Amino acid sequence: MYGFLKWVEGLGAWTVNTFNVNAFIDSLQYMGKGMAVILIVTVVLILCVYLLNVATKEKN
């Protein structure tokens, strides 16, 4: 793990020696799809909770 890190005196922090921009750009589509799925699942869960509340609401 330490082979990928180097200490930068000017920053006073550890930084990664290399950053593969092409790999990052290529992975954006998968990150976007993952975020879309998380959003869809969240919306479905909220909708289910709302519908269960409406269906089980006590009527006066």
Task: Describe what this molecule looks like in 3D.
The structure is a single chain. By secondary structure, the chain is of the alpha+beta class. It contains 1 helix and 2 strands. It has one helix at 21-55, and strands spanning 5-8, 13-16. Strand 1 and strand 2 (13-16) form a beta hairpin.
Instruction: Summarize the amount of helix as a percent range.
Output: 55-70%
Instruction: Tell me the strand percentage band.
Output: 5-15%
Shape: elongated
* Subunit organisation of the chains: single chain
Q: Characterize the largest beta sheet: strand count, sense, and whether it forms a barrel.
A: 2 strands, antiparallel
Q: Report the uncertain regions.
A: none
Task: Count helical runs.
Answer: 1
Class derived from helix and strand content: alpha+beta
Order of helices and strands: EEH
Topology, number of strands:
2
How far is the N terminus from the C terminus? 64 Å
How many structural domains in the coordinates? 1
Rg over C-alpha atoms, rounded to the nearest angstrom: 23 Å
Q: For the largest beta sheet, what order do the strands appear in spatially?
A: 1-2
**What value does the average pLDDT take?**
86
Brief rundown of the structure:
With 60 residues, this protein is α+β, with helices and mostly antiparallel strands. It contains one helix and two strands; from the N terminus they run ββα. The longest helix has 35 residues, at 21-55.
